[in-house]
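Review this fold:
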Amino acid sequence: MTPRRAATPASATSHQLWGGRFAGGSHPALVAVNRSIGVDIRLWPYDVELSKAWATAIGEAGVLTGAEVRKMRAGLDRVHRKLAAGVEPTASDEDVHTLVDRLLHDEIGAVASRLHTGRSRNDQVATGSRMLVMRELADILGAAKAVQKSLYDRARTVGDALMPAYTHLQRAQPVLAAHWLLAHFWAIERDRRRLTDARRSAGVLPLGSGAIAGSAFRVNRKRLARTLGFHSISPNSIDAVGDRDFMLDAVYALSTLGTHLSRLAEDLILFGSAEFGFVRFGDAFSTGSSMMPQKRNPDALELARGSAARVTGHLVSLLTMLKGTPSGYNKDFQDDKRALFDALDAMHLLLPAVAGTVHTLRFNTSRMRDAVTGSMMATDLADHLVRKRATFREAHAAVGSLVRSAEERNLELNELEPSEILDAHRLFDKSVMRDLDPAITISHRELDGGTGPGAVARQLAAARRTLRT
C-alpha cells in the first residue's frame, strides 16, 4: 500500500526544532504519524505561559538581556491573543511547541530563536501537561461537588421515605431513601479526595530538566515553580521527563469517579423503569424515542455508564504504555495526551448532566414504601431472638424455617399467623410482631452510619459540613 502523503512535507523553511542533523526532509509518512498538533494544541495556553516564565528565568541567568526578555514576553502576549482569537496551525506546525515558536518568530523576529536555550520539548510538554491537569481537575472538583449537592438536596427533601435496599439485586432490608442517596454522596466524596491528591501529584515542576540531563544554564527552578503555580521541583532530570505518574493519578481518579457515576446511573435507570417505578426523570434530562411516543429515556445516565468504560480503558492504555518504555522521554508519550484529554472531557460533560438528572428527579415514595415487604424483616426477627440471649446461628435457623414456610404458601412473613411465628422458637413472644414493622426495624439502626432516622440526620449534617469545604 502506498503511504498517504502529508499535505506539506517538512522543509528547510519550517520551524521544526530538530532538523539540522538530517540531510534531507522527512518522508511524508513520518510527517503524518509524527505530527501531534491536532491533539496537543490544547496545551497552547500553558506553553505560552511557561515560555514567558522561561524567558524571565534565562534572562536572570544571563542568556537574554533585559530588553530581550521584555520583547519576548510582549511577543508571547501577542501570540496568546492570536491563538485565543482562533489562529489555526499550518501544515508545517509539527506540535504545539513549533506552533508557538513560529508565531513568536512572526511577532519579534530572530531573537525568538533564543527562547529555546536550555530547554527541550521534553520538559516543555511535561510542564504544560501538568499545568493543564492542575487547572482542569480544579474544574472537575467543582463539578463533582455539584453532583454531591444534588444528592444532598434530594436526601434532605425526601424526608422519612422508606425503600428497599438491595444485595445481589434482591430485596434485602428496608432503609430510608435518604440513606441510599447519601451512599452515593460519600462515594463521590472519596473521588474528590482522589482528585485533590492527583492535582498535588501534578504540582511538581519538570521545567529545567532539559531533554534528560538538566539545563546547562543556572535558572532558578524554585522561582519558576512559584511563578507557574507548582509546589516543588523535580529532583531528577531523567525521571522528570519520563514521569507520567501524574497522568496515571489523574486518569485513575477520573476512572473511579466515572465508576461511581456509573453505579449511581445504574441504580437510577433501574429505579426509573416501570418495573420499579421509584423515580421519574425530569423532562429537561430525558429523551424520547423516534418510534415509540411513550418512551422517557435517561440518556445522560446511560452515557455515564458507557463513558466510565471508556475512561477505564484510557487508564489501562496509559499503564500499558508506561510499562513498556525505558527511562527518560519516549515518543510513545505522544499518545498519553489522547487518553488524558478524553478522560477529562468525559467528566467535564458528564458531571453537569448527572447533577441535573438527580436535581430534577421526582420520587414516588408510595411505590418505594410498597416495595418494602414483610419478608425483608427476617433479620430483625433473628435480632429479636438474639436480644433474648439466643445465639445468632440458632435464631437464623428458626427464622429461616419461617421464611421457608411463608415462601411455600406465597406469603410474606407478616402474613403468617402470629401463633406460627411464636411457635418457631421458645423465646419469641408477642412483642416480636412489632419487629415486622419496617419503621420499627429502622429505628433499631441508630448507630453512626446506619439507616435510623437519627443516624441519617447526623449523616446529613456531616454531608452539609463536607459541602462547605
In short: Residues 26-116 form a domain with the Fumarase C; Chain B, domain 1 fold (CATH 1.10.275.10). The first strand starts at residue 162 and ends at 167. The two ends are 59 Å apart (CA to CA).
